[in-house]
Write a structure and sequence with these properties.
The chain has 10 helices and 10 strands. It is α/β, with parallel strands linked by helices. It has a domain at about 5-90 and about 170-175 and about 200-270: Rossmann fold, CATH 3.40.50.300. Strands 6-7-8-3-9-10 form a 6-stranded mixed β-sheet, sandwiched between helices. Strands 2-1-4-5 form a 4-stranded antiparallel β-sheet, covered by helices on one side. The radius of gyration is 18 Å and the shape is globular. It binds adenosine-5'-triphosphate (ATP) and magnesium ion. Magnesium ion binds near residues 50, 51, 98 and 171.
Length: about 270
């Protein structure tokens, strides 16, 4: 359990099970917590169930004929696992989905205004986003579809901020971006958390990067949490190093469970 739990848990997943189309079981009992004001990372290989976990929290699962079939999700002490995405958004849960989906034919600024529609678009919201992302201010009139991958990633994060989230769910912000752009985006993510205390649940395949920003992390494999701990400790963990060093070479990557020094803890057996 994250050590700053005494601050109160903002989000709590209790042993959730998720199914798609009533038959495909993807999450097989996932428990995790995001304390107020913290960045928590959710790591794991392709297909582990990271995006599914985020969609279960944000209510977007429904749009893919998925559902939380067991366990519960609590946000600020309220059950939310049966709520719609619109309800979750109104409560302040905002997800930045994988793949940087911008409204291609709208300008950068129009994209941002769309993000603010639930809260009523306001000038202060735009100014705040432009303060974090000066690059977006420079290209505010540009058609979003013509922006670079990095600019589009900034745009979808900015659009999410316009909705004034109480919890930001970020799905693989580093994917496919150049190292310098990744560095810039992660610095902004860190500042958002440090300056405003914005709580973030960050999904990443890039463990090194994620463990630098997060205070606590969970490793997901095949729909189960196989390891969790303070980011500082996980960074030093030989298994994590070995497993994630293989990330550049997907073909030879081992299962986390097969890593040699993998120490099975009792509770993983349950
Ligand atoms: N809409 C869907 N219908 C059926 N199965 C799905 C659906 N979405 C995801 N899955 C399956 O659920 C499993 C987990 O997928 P998910 O997208 O959550 O993984 P992920 O950890 O985000 O992977 P990646 O790193 O590739 O994004 C996969 O086996 C995937 O095929
Ligand atoms: Mg994913």
């Amino acid at each position: 359990m994250p050590s700053n739990m005494e601050n109160g848990s903002l989000l709590k997943l209790n042993n959730i099970e998720v199914m798609y189309h009533r038959v495909i079981l993807v999450l097989k009992g996932v428990s995790l917590q995001v304390p107020q004001g913290s960045v928590v990372a959710l790591l794991g290989a392709n297909g582990a169930g990271k995006s599914t976990t985020l969609k279960a929290i944000s209510g977007l699962l429904r749009h893919e004929d998925g559902a939380v079939t067991d366990g519960s999700i609590e946000f600020l002490g309220q059950r939310i696992d049966k709520r719609s995405g619109e309800d979750a958004a109104r409560m302040g849960i905002v997800q930045v989905i994988e793949g940087r989906r911008v409204f291609e034919h709208l300008s950068v600024e129009e994209n941002l205004r769309v993000g603010g529609h639930l809260r009523g678009t306001n000038k202060r919201g735009l100014e705040r986003v432009y303060a974090y992302f000066p690059r977006l201010a420079q290209i505010r009139a540009r058609q979003a579809g013509l922006c670079s991958g990095g600019e589009q990633q900034m745009l979808v994060i900015g659009r999410a901020l316009m909705a004034q989230p109480k919890l930001l769910l970020l799905d693989e912000p580093s994917l496919g971006l150049a190292p310098l752009m990744i560095k810039e985006i992660f610095e902004i993510i860190t500042r958002l958390n440090q300056d405003e205390g914005l709580p973030i649940l960050l999904v990443e395949q890039n463990a090194k990067l994620a463990l630098r920003v997060a205070s606590y992390a969970y490793v997901l494999e095949n729909g189960r949490v196989v390891m969790d701990g303070q980011a500082e400790q996980l960074k030093e963990n030989a298994d994590i190093k070995e497993f994630y060093l293989g990330l550049t070479d997907v073909g030879t990557r081992k299962s986390f469970r097969e890593v040699k020094h993998y120490k099975r803890r009792k509770r993983w057996l349950t």
